[in-house]
Specification:
The protein is α+β, with helices and mostly antiparallel strands. About 55% of the residues lie in helices and about 15% in strands. The protein contains nine helices and eleven strands. A five-stranded mixed sheet has the order 6-8-9-11-10. α8 runs antiparallel to α9. The longest helix is centred in the middle third of the chain and has 49 residues. About 0% of the residues have low confidence.
Length: about 425
């Protein structure tokens, strides 16, 4: 994190420095040193060149009286130039020392000398102000980079904690932070992973609890099995005993099948392949298949409807949701189960109602959770607590919903699918 901060800070600072220095150099070379500054001295030289040497000196004396400007005329042979320096009539030659400078321009056989002048005393101040300017830019970059580095450090720390199995880790940043969207995404991911882990723990505990009872019965039955296999044992008791073992095995098989279905719905990330599902026909086929599964004779009815009702969905999952509702109703219904279909402008509704006991109001918000069962068990019926949870997942996958309405007269579960 420190390396990221230092590299970004140096990049910004050096960029500001390089760009500013380049622009400053271009300005000094192409603007400050332009010929416009020397134009008055060249013009004076042209005027003097049209006069005689005596008149030139008189003009310079007049100018000196009116303006304190150091000007003098010398003969060319009085001027010693170094190297290849040449004097011309339309170009100024400038020489300077550490603190002063002189300007020369040819006027016939004479040389007009301006100076000595003090070199611009503001040059040092200009350098100081330039440094202050670049330091200010660096400070601005620091003001921008430092909060970003601090927030990234918080993000890194939270990620490390989450990787160490602190599932409740969340990132709290100011909403104006540059990485606030990243923090929100992390929090959503952490919440989802935490929920999955909690759900997995809950499922593991519930499965171990649910499978313990039939497994214990099977172990007890295996211990008694030699008694029922003796030659003089009662055939009817033996058959009943073996049927009880088969029932326990089937209970565990059903539990595992329900658990696999629930887990498969949990891990489905691919968008569903939707097809046209006709609900009336599906309901009729389920009634024929399930009408004899109830221990008591329960009447399954579907009011006659002439219009077909279609939804978009995965046929097998839609059928599974309706089937689970009917099986659940068969456990608790006293005499009748009614399947009702309707639709409006936006949704299609399928309601499975029965005249069984009322589900307590405090249990209704929780019955769609995996392995949740009401504290009160009716008629000794006891499912695995996965049927309604599977329905909830199926409906969420189809962008639909499942709801419950229960009172002393009836209990009704309603599935709703969007039309589009």
């Amino acid at each position: 994190m420190k390396r990221l901060f230092i590299s970004l800070y140096l990049l910004l600072s050096l960029s500001f420095l390089g760009i500013g220095w380049t622009l400053d150099s271009l300005w000094q070379n192409h603007v400050e040193d332009s010929g416009d500054v020397d134009a008055p001295l060249i013009a004076l030289a042209l005027i003097l060149s049209k006069h005689s040497e005596a008149e030139r000196q008189m003009l310079l004396d007049e100018i000196s009286k009116q303006h304190a400007f150091p000007l003098q005329l010398l003969q060319r042979d009085q001027i010693a130039l170094n190297g290849n320096m040449q004097l011309s009539h339309n170009e100024i030659l400038t020489t300077q020392t550490d603190k002063t400078q002189l300007q020369f321009i040819a006027v016939g056989n004479q040389v007009l000398i301006a100076g000595p002048f003090d070199i611009d005393p503001r040059d040092k101040l200009r350098g100081i102000f330039t440094i202050i300017f670049y330091l200010s830019l660096a400070l601005v970059a620091l003001v921008w980079v430092w909060p970003l580095s601090r927030d990234l450090k918080v993000l890194r720390s939270a990620t490390k904690k989450f990787g160490e199995a602190h599932w409740d880790t969340r990132i709290e940043l100011n909403s104006r932070s540059q990485v606030a969207p990243l923090a929100l995404t992390f929090n959503d991911m952490a919440q989802h992973i935490s929920s999955l882990i909690d759900n997995q723990k809950h499922l593991t505990n519930a499965v171990s609890h649910e499978i313990r009872t039939p497994l214990a019965r099977l172990k007890f039955a295996l211990a008694l099995l030699p008694k029922y296999c003796l030659p003089d044992s009662d055939m009817q008791q033996r058959t009943h005993f073996l049927n009880e073992m088969q029932t326990d095995i089937k209970e565990m098989e059903d539990l595992l099948q329900e658990l696999l279905t629930y887990a498969s719905l949990e891990t489905m990330q691919i968008e569903p392949v939707l097809e046209n599902c006709e609900l009336i026909n599906i309901s009729k086929q389920l009634i024929i298949r399930l009408k004899d599964l109830s221990v008591h004779h329960i009447e399954l009815t579907l009011p006659d409807q002439t219009d077909e009702i279609y939804i978009k969905g995965e046929g097998s999952l839609v059928e599974r949701a309706i089937q689970n509702l009917i099986i659940n109703a068969q456990r608790y219904a006293k005499s009748t189960i009614i399947i009702h279909l309707r639709h409006d402008l936006n949704n299609v509704y399928l309601t499975v109602s029965n005249n069984g006991p009322c589900i307590p109001l405090e249990d209704q918000p929780h019955i769609f959770k995996a392995f949740y069962r009401s504290q009160s068990q009716y008629h000794g019926n006891k499912g695995h607590g996965l049927g309604l949870a599977i329905i909830k997942r199926i409906m969420l996958r189809h962008r639909g919903n499942v709801s419950i309405e229960s009172n002393d007269q009836k209990t009704a579960f309603t599935l709703s699918w969007p039309k589009n």
